[in-house]
Amino acid sequence: MLLIESLYTGDTPATEQLVLNFDARTKSRLRTQLASGEEVGLFLPRGTILRGGAMLESKDGRIVEVVSAPEALVEARCASALELTRAAYHLGNRHVAVQVCDNALRIQQDHVLEHMLEGLGARLTRLDAPFEPEAGAYAHGHHHSERGATEARIHVMGGAA
């Protein structure tokens, strides 16, 4: 099994691809397969969120490109910026991963959230596309521990801040 423990920032082009949906790209420990079918084990630093286009280096020196797999999404469009802002607020209030697009929001398909968005006046379109949600202000484990251990923390897409 190919072992990957680090991100790669050099100029060497990738020779392999790792195609993952968003949920898999939020896991720092994962057993999966390269596009070629070769088995791979990811052991990345906790809290790592892989984005499409990210490069990884395997223990044997191969460079692996992360590819965002298409997945079942819903795109919400609204008649006004106010309605779109309201929809974004309600999704954020539920700690939902959201991809911000040009005049639209994308989320993973969820019938409860879709019903809520329709109730807020959004027009919904189902599509299969790569999902690249916003990381958020707390994506890198940011918190204010000086305020005390009882402070509420924001949890971002599978990782605790």
From TrEMBL:
Transmembrane segments: none annotated. Coiled coil: none annotated. InterPro entries: UreE, UreE_C_dom, UreE_N, UreE_N_sf. SUPFAM superfamilies: Urease metallochaperone UreE, C-terminal domain, Urease metallochaperone UreE, N-terminal domain. Residues 3-64 form the UreE urease accessory N-terminal domain. Pfam families: UreE_C, UreE_N. Its main location: cytoplasm. The keyword Transmembrane helix does not apply. It comes from the Bacteria. SMART domains: UreE_N. Keywords: Chaperone, Cytoplasm, Nickel. It is found in: Cytoplasm. Belongs to the UreE family. Involved in urease metallocenter assembly. Binds nickel. Probably functions as a nickel donor during metallocenter assembly. This is Urease accessory protein UreE. It comes from Uliginosibacterium paludis.
